[in-house]
Design goal:
Chain A: This is ABC transporter ATP-binding protein. The complex is a heteropentamer of chains A (237), B (385), C (290), D (248) and E (352). Chain B is an alpha/beta fold. Chain B has helices at residues 17-36, 56-69, 81-93, 120-135, 147-162, 181-190, 201-204, 206-213, 231-234, 256-268, 277-296, 301-309, 358-363, and strands at residues 4-10, 45-51, 74-77, 98-100, 108-109, 113-115, 138-144, 166-173, 194-198, 220-222, 243-247, 314-317, 320-323, 333-340, 346-355, 374-375. In chain B, 40% of the residues lie in helices and 21% in strands. In chain B, the strands form four sheets. Chain B has a seven-stranded mixed sheet, with helices on both faces. In chain B, helix 1 packs parallel to helix 11, helix 2 (56-69) packs parallel to helix 3 (81-93) and helix 4 (120-135) crosses helix 5. In chain C, helix 2 packs across helix 8, helix 2 crosses helix 9 (218-231) and helix 10 (235-257) packs antiparallel against helix 11. Chain C has one domain (10-119, 143-289). Chain C contains twelve helices and two strands; from the N terminus they run ααααββαααααααα. Classes of the chains: A alpha/beta (237), B alpha/beta (385), C mainly alpha (290), D alpha/beta (248), E mainly alpha (352). At the B-C interface, helix 1, strand 8, helix 6, helix 8 and helix 9 of B face helix 1, helix 4, strand 2, helix 10 and helix 11 of C.
């Protein structure tokens, strides 16, 4: 039985200052899927993610989440519907401590237990170690881990991951992929993943969209993902 | 007939507005009365009014405008001494005639200026000896830290000394300061018999409330307060209790002329919070101008000054009889000693009539002979001829 | 005069200056420190609080209630101002200088037109007390303790409550806070209203001791900015020590050489402190902690 | 003589000992890669070399000169340049202006704009020349910053994660570029987590761990080192996963 | 030759709006209009225009420091006042003969610039930035104001020049040009108008060249990202100091011209309100472009004066509303936003 569609876009046009970057983009993500989006620099992957969470105004088309059009909801309302977002470039709150950054992430959940916190801190032990350190003074990779942990604490139903491997040491990249897959299996969380790291895509994704010039130009299934040559072709400059 | 144009540059907004909006109203009242009675030699008065916004640069802009563009016959201008000094070079340059209708620190010797406000010799030579007589010889001065305050304090110091008294302290307060705890303590430490308060501006007026709250309970003497800033109306009694002020006019003066003036004023401007001495100075200045023009049959400054030189330009003002001194072009005044009671009611323990603005003339300013266009002070008198 | 009296009077003067600096600055510290908005209309929120307080007190309500009204009305005005004007300027905080300067002109002159050039005061409550030959106003002690209470309250609010963390997060990376579910507009409104309300509280507290005129806010402005800036970016680490340092300088200089030197001393201290600690006192404290 | 030499560099942040007696020597003409776990102190070491931080103790020599006390801009003028981990560009200025500001010191005014066009072309940003740099995508910002760093024609090029967010092809192109610059005599010190890139360019690899030099050698030696695998590379090394990269 | 054309080529560039023949024809038309208009106007209007012009120099200086360099100086009026007082002290002591007033202008501006060198060294080499810079500069100007306000006594004199406290200093001569057969005294009328207009055009064009030069590039770079600018090898402190001193000299020029215009200078020209005004002018026009600053300053000054003349006590309220609306409607400043809108209308790209 095919799962319900959790998130889809229809003819999505979005961009900055009146100029669309996304040129009528359609995609569909079903509940419990891990879907990757790949494409060259500047094709609009991050813009897509931002328009899904609501940080870029939608000019045309729609974003449908759990059967409802959400393109006009502000970001915080979409977050409250269970969408978690890990941005490219981390965007931690630099002058808040690690603990406070996590606390902002936990804001959505009515009651955050010590167990919830421990779960996240077990994924990323460095966060526990640096619990009182200001996030802005953490190393790049540490901040990236914090950005992921900050989203996981709220148990979102859908996670938008924009290049999560960036700046992270290889073995932790593997850990993150493993954690995400495990979460997906145990909690059914749906994940949209933008990545350049082919290893990570292969380790996580069940399906993959290829983007170019603001549109989806191809879709790869599991077999397509396994085909290294096909992958590289799509990412080629 | 051609109207006679009068420029009016007063602060209708900004820091000083509380004390000066009434000046504009007083001029409007006088002009209306004069026009109803047929104008000046049949010529109606036309007022050209600009709001100078308590801003010196606006005085410069608008003095130039009234003299050069509006071509007014005379200007009524200025509250703060700084504003007067800002526009004075421009009046001199265009050889205009300006009335400064404000009490001030004195000393302006300038043929282009006529001053109707009271000066220190009028207010302090009366007030200080009287206070020393009544309360004792130890005096403390609290004064605004600029020309007016410093020069007035100098007058107080000199008069106290001349009368065998002792200055037990002097504090100078920068303009805009509103917190006085330290000064209150200084005063208590010095134990004066009374305090001379030469505080200017609305911020500094906060002193009275704060001193009362700390139970300073000393008599106070002033040349500016009450008469200019009507603090006794603005503060809750009894913070101004035992404040003595020498002023040439306040609305409480209980003479027929004063009551008539006050009634006319209130009829035209019922919302006026207070009719202060500057309002009366401005009102009488219009009539003074009328008299001079009628006598000279001219609005030319030189013709008017010939009338002034005769020494008999006098009139019956709301305060009483006033005359213009030809040497300094300043005004003699009736000086009222106003006492503020515990309930902030006003009584007048003493009135001095016809107090002359003697100092400038005695010091060597004689505008009938020469026009130095300068401002002098007791410690910086005119050069001896 | 004995040492006790001297010590008390020095302490009293310090407390008096400290209270004035803290209360002048607290609303500004929230609005500037938290939101980066340079609020030149700060003084007018203080004026608003004072006017409302006195108007309400004239109707016969007890002063503490009247002061609360002053604070609440200022907060509401603040929320309105945020909605209409400030909200559109978070991306370009420097432009708030011009906008709030405009607001300050409107408020000052509007008050003059609507309510006239002055308003009658209410008188200072509580009377005075004697200490070693001097009498002091009891109300000034109330002001001092109110200043301490405001500092403590703000510290608790911003460090121990969800709101505090949300507000700080919102100010630092607004889009990310939104993406994590924070209603950033509401947070901005509340923060600005809080700052305006604190300014109103200050106005209410000082109203009984001052002349009420439309321009009264200007007497607080310099002290407010100086304290906030010497404090540095972190409102709660900065304001209290900054006010303490400045109050010592001000009270010592004033008692030694008069008010002019108190003021010039204050300004020179600012210049020196910032030269030594280019990020203010809290910038220094945080760097050391890091 | 080493071009850059760090001697017993220590840096503390409060109680944190971030670089611990680091000794590092860069021979002229080498491409040296610095790898190590997150928080190992790599970026901090860069900041010490650049003078953004002062070391708690230790010494930095550049071209034989002790530069430990030198201001940053003077170090740059001695022949260093840097691409930071977090893009440091002039966001509100156009891409062209960004490059102009970097290059105006090194090219005569007459030749400047032609040079900028050449570089834009090279960075594949010719279409974005008038675009504000802040509006570039993440990857494009990286390119721009690398371009700015390279355009200073430094003797020593410091690159902190130059290929983060780049696709494998772009990573390879970046590697090619660095090799070309190196062939022209530029010494390079690069921090990277992308082993394919390290394998492509590095003459020598230093592993930093907990602020200390943990291992040093060629990429093959490092990859073969089980201790490095344990703290950093993990079970499956990318070299086995993406062998094509090495031969590209 | 080549260097000279390149020098003039700097009149246009990414740091200034307006380029191409269209712009320069417009510029010449406006300049011609400005030259001819006194012939068709009265003395008051001309004198009043000079008055507006005198402030523009300070605004242009602030645009350079703040709009281009990113350093918000809240204390430009300090230099204004210092130069104004210096001119007064010099000319009251040495008179106006032999063209000394012109020497005094140069000396007064130099004194202001020298003070800026000291203050700027203290500020920028102490790495003070952002709002801290604003408050320190404001503090400096307020200290000067407070100090000057209490110099009423006769003991405060320099030579024969009384500082004269809050009432201000007057009696200094206006600008006087030595001329065979009688000095020309430049009262605020047509002659002074042409002198100040000439200065204004000169300063404007030189600033255009400056901000489009490599110096201007670096200044803008510092505004955008000082760390990066330093990491490109620039000693940012020197550039900031340079801009600060030029801006201070221009503020000083304003101060001197203002003083000669009204033969008066006062401490309140260094007070809080006076200090805030240049910021308003510059921000309303568009701080990051000197043309916008120039036009914006003139617009604000004349609009506010007109309002004060015709608006009675509502003037300040209307001014306030206009300021708020301007900021809301024209985010980059009235002139800059307007210019880019016009630019778009005519289909040009990349204006500004
Ligand atoms: N804030 C912005 N304003 C204007 N244009 C922007 C902005 N952000 C991105 N763009 C433009 O939108 C396009 C897509 O950018 P986006 O960040 O979505 O790319 P991307 O696919 O995520 O690239 P990368 O792999 O480099 O992260 C780019 O051409 C970029 O220049
Ligand atoms: N200003 C600071 N205050 C406190 N700790 C700091 C500061 N700067 C860096 N650190 C700490 O120093 C350590 C080294 O940081 P650094 O940025 O050098 O790591 P890195 O090796 O570059 O890591 P990454 O690969 O994640 O970029 C980290 O643990 C970081 O949290
Ligand atoms: N003239 C006065 N009071 O300044
Ligand atoms: Mg992206
Ligand atoms: Mg790093």
């Amino acid at each position: 039985m095919r799962k319900e569609v959790l998130l889809s876009t229809l003819g999505l046009r979005a961009g900055y200052g009146g100029k669309p970057v996304l040129q009528g983009l359609d995609l569909t993500v079903r509940e419990g899927e891990i879907v990757a989006v790949i494409g060259r620099n500047g094709v609009g992957k991050s813009t897509l993610m931002k328009s899904l969470i609501g940080l870029v105004p939608v000019m045309d088309g729609s974003v449908i989440y759990r059967g409802e059009a959400v393109e006009h909801l502000p970001a915080h309302k979409r977050a409250r519907l269970g969408v978690g977002y890990v941005p490219q470039g981390r965007d931690v709150f630099p002058r808040l401590t690690v603990a406070e950054n996590i606390a902002v992430g936990a804001m959505l959940k009515r009651a955050v237990t010590q167990a919830d916190r421990d779960r996240v801190l077990d994924y990323f032990p460095i966060l526990r170690e640096r619990w009182g350190q200001r996030a802005g003074t953490m190393s790049g990779g540490q901040q990236q881990q914090l950005a992921i942990g900050r989203v996981l604490i709220a148990d979102p139903a859908l996670i938008l991951l924009d290049e999560p491997s960036e700046g992270i040491q290889p073995n932790i990249v593997q850990d993150i992929a493993r954690i995400m897959v495990e979460l997906n299996r145990t909690t059914g969380v749906t994940i949209v993943l933008v990545e350049q790291n082919i290893d990570m895509i292969r380790a996580m994704a069940q399906r993959c969209y290829v983007m170019d010039k603001g549109r989806i130009v191809a879709e790869l299934d599991r077999d397509g993902l396994a085909d290294g040559a096909a992958m590289r072709r799509h990412l080629a400059v | 007939a051609d109207p006679i144009k009068l420029g009016v540059l007063e602060d209708q907004s900004g820091d000083f507005a509380a004390a000066t909006i009434g000046k504009v109203h007083a001029i409007q009242l006088a002009a209306e009365e004069i026009n109803k009675a047929g104008g000046i030699d049949g010529r109606p008065l036309e007022l050209v009014i600009y709001d100078t916004q308590s801003d010196n640069t606006r005085y410069q802009e608008f003095m130039r405008r009234v003299l050069q563009r509006d071509k007014v016959d005379a200007v009524f201008a200025g509250f703060s001494s700084a504003s007067r000094e800002a526009y004075r070079p421009i009046v001199n340059q265009f050889d205009g005639l300006a009335f400064y209708n404000n009490q001030y620190e004195g000393g302006v010797c300038d043929a282009n200026m006529i001053v109707t406000g009271a000066v220190p010799e009028q207010q302090f030579s009366t007030l200080i000896p009287w206070m020393m007589e009544k309360y004792g010889k130890k005096v403390y001065t609290l004064a605004a830290d600029y020309n007016f305050g410093q020069i007035s304090a100098e007058w107080v110091r000199n008069i106290v000394k001349e009368n065998g008294g002792e200055m037990v302290g002097e504090d100078f307060i920068p303009l805009g300061v509103s917190q006085f705890s330290q000064n209150i303590q200084n005063i208590q430490k010095a134990k004066p018999d009374f305090v001379v308060t030469l505080l200017v501006g609305t911020a500094q007026a906060s002193y009275y409330e704060q001193a009362a709250a700390a139970s300073v309970n000393l008599p106070m003497a002033s040349s500016v307060n009450v008469g200019q800033g009507y603090e006794h109306k603005r503060f809750k009694p009894p913070s101004l209790k035992d404040m003595y002020v020498t002023t040439n006019y306040i609305e409480e003066i209980d003479t027929p002329a004063s009551k008539a003036f006050f009634a006319k004023f209130k009829a035209k401007f019922p919302d006026e919070p207070y009719v202060n001495q500057e309002a009366e100075n401005s009102y009488l200045a219009v009539y003074l101008y009328k008299q001079m023009v009628e006598r000279a049959k001219s609005t030319k400054r030189d013709d008017l000054r010939k009338e002034i030189a005769k020494g008999d330009v006098c009139m019956d003002a709301p305060e009483g009889k006033v005359c213009l001194d030809p040497k300094s072009q300043h005004m003699s005044h009736t000086i009222y000693l106003a006492k503020v009671g515990a309930d902030h009611s006003i009584t007048f323990p003493k009135v001095w009539e016809d107090i002359k603005p003697y100092w400038l003339g005695e010091a060597g300013c004689d505008l009938t002979k020469s026009d130095p266009s300068a401002q002098y002070t007791p410690s910086n008198p005119p050069p001896k001829p | 005069m004995d040492v006790g009296t001297l010590a008390f009077s020095a302490l009293y003067q310090f407390g008096d200056a400290f209270a004035f600096l803290v209360l002048s600055a607290c609303g500004l510290a929230v609005i500037f420190g938290m939101m980066g908005v340079i609020n030149l209309a700060h003084g007018e929120f203080i004026m608003c609080g004072a006017y409302v307080t006195v108007s309400v007190a004239h109707t016969g309500l007890p002063l503490p209630l009247a002061i609360a009204c002053g604070a609440i009305v200022s907060a509401m005005v603040g929320a309105l101002v945020e909605l209409i004007v400030i909200r559109h300027l978070y991306e370009r905080p420097l432009d708030t200088i011009v906008a709030t300067w405009g607001l300050s002109l409107i408020a000052t002159q509007g008050t003059l037109i609507l309510l006239g050039s002055t308003m009658a005061g209410v008188g200072t409550p509580f009377g005075s007390f004697q200490m070693g030959g001097y009498s002091y106003s009891l109300y000034r002690l109330v002001l001092f303790f109110m200043a301490l209470a405001v500092l403590a309250g703000l510290y608790a609010l911003f460090n121990w409550t969800r709101f505090g963390v949300m507000a700080r997060a919102t100010i630092q990376v607004p889009h990310m806070a939104a993406a994590l579910g924070v209603d950033t507009r509401l947070v901005y409104s509340l923060t600005f209203a809080l700052g305006a309300g604190l300014a109103g509280l200050t106005g209410g507290l000082y109203a009984p001791t001052m002349t009420l005129v439309p321009t009264m806010g200007t007497t607080f402005i310099m002290e407010a900015f100086v304290t906030v800036v010497v404090g540095g970016a972190d409102v709660f680490l900065g304001t209290a020590p900054a006010a303490a340092v400045l109050a010592v300088v001000k009270s010592v200089m004033t008692s030694w050489q008069g008010q002019l030197f108190g003021q010039i001393g204050l300004l020179v201290t600012v210049i020196i402190v910032i030269r030594v600690l280019p990020k203010g006192i809290s910038g220094f404290l945080l760097r050391e902690r890091a | 003589m080493a071009l850059l030499e760090a001697r017993a560099l220590n840096k503390h942040f409060g109680g944190l000992h971030v670089t611990n007696n680091v000794d590092l020597a860069l021979e002229p003409g080498e491409i040296h890669c610095l790898i190590g776990p997150n928080g190992a102190g790599k970026s901090t070491l860069f900041r010490l070399i650049l003078g953004e931080h002062q070391p708690s103790s230790g010494q930095i020599l550049f071209g034989g000169e002790d530069i430990t006390a030198l201001k940053s801009y003077k170090r740059i003028r001695r022949g260093m340049s840097v691409k930071f981990q977090v893009p440091g560009i002039f966001k509100a200025l156009s891409v062209r202006q960004n490059l102009e500001i970097a290059m105006q010191q090194h090219y005569p005014p007459a030749a400047l704009h032609a040079e900028i066009d050449r570089l834009l072309d090279f960075l594949k940003l010719e279409g974005e020349a008038k675009q504000l740099a802040g509006n570039l995508s993440h990857g494009q910002k990286q390119w721009l910053e690398i371009g700015m760093a390279v355009s200073l024609k430094p003797r020593l090029l410091l690159l902190d994660e130059p290929t983060a967010g780049m696709s494998p092809d772009e990573t390879r192109a970046t590697g090619d570029m660095i090799q070309r610059l190196n062939a022209d005599g530029m010494t390079v010190l690069a921090v990277e987590h992308d082993m394919a890139f390290v394998r492509q360019v590095a003459h020598k690899v230093t592993v930093l761990h907990l602020g200390q030099v943990f291992a040093q050698g060629t990429i093959d030696e490092i990859v073969a080192d089980e201790r490095v695998a344990a703290i950093y590379l993990g079970q499956s090394t990318p070299s086995t996963d993406a062998p094509e990269a090495a031969h590209a | 030759m080549n260097a000279l054309t390149r020098f003039f080529a700097r009149l246009e560039g990414p740091q200034t709006i307006g380029r191409g023949p269209g712009f320069w024809i417009g510029f010449l038309v406006v300049l011609t209009g400005a030259c001819l208009y006194p012939q068709f106007s009265d003395g008051y209007t001309v004198g009043n225009t000079v008055y507006f012009f005198t402030w523009v120099f300070m605004a242009l200086g602030l645009s350079l420091i703040w709009g281009y360099g990113g350093a918000l100086s809240f204390g430009q009026t300090a230099f204004f006042g210092i130069a104004g007082y210096s001119y007064g002290i010099l000319t009251i002591n040495f008179g106006a003969a032999y063209g000394f007033t012109l020497v005094a202008v140069v000396l007064a501006v130099a004194i202001a610039a020298l003070f800026a060198v000291l203050l700027g060294y203290f500020l920028f080499f102490g790495r003070i930035s952002g709002v801290f810079l604003g408050i320190v500069t404001l503090s400096v100007t307020l200290v000067l104001e407070r100090f000057m306000a209490q110099t009423a006594g006769p003991e405060w004199r320099i030579g024969s020049a009384r500082l004269n406290g809050f009432n201000g200093m007057s009696n200094m001569p206006p600008l006087t040009i030595p001329w065979p057969g009688g000095d020309i005294v430049l009262f605020p009328d047509v002659q002074l108008y042409y002198v100040v207009l000439g200065l204004l055009v000169l300063v404007y064009l030189l600033l255009r060249i400056l901000v489009n030069s490599s110096f201007g590039n670096v200044l803008v770079a510092i505004r955008e990202n000082p760390e990066r600018a330093e990491m490109l090898g620039y000693d940012i402190r020197k550039y900031q100091l340079g801009a600060f001193v030029i801006g201070a000299a221009l503020a000083g020029l304003s101060g001197v011209l203002y003083t000669t215009w009204g033969q008066y200078i006062t401490p309140s020209s260094m007070g809080m309100t006076a200090a805030a005004l240049p910021i308003v002018w510059v921000a309303v026009g568009g701080r990051s472009d000197i043309t916008s600053t120039l036009i914006g300053t003139l617009v604000v000054l004349s609009a506010f004066q007109a309002l004060t003349i015709h608006g009675s006590q509502y003037a300040l309220v209307v001014m306030g509303i206009l300021l708020v609306l301007t900021v809301l409607i024209a985010p980059r400043g009235l002139i800059l936003s307007g210019a880019s809108r016009i630019g778009r209308l005519f289909g040009k790209r990349g204006d500004a």
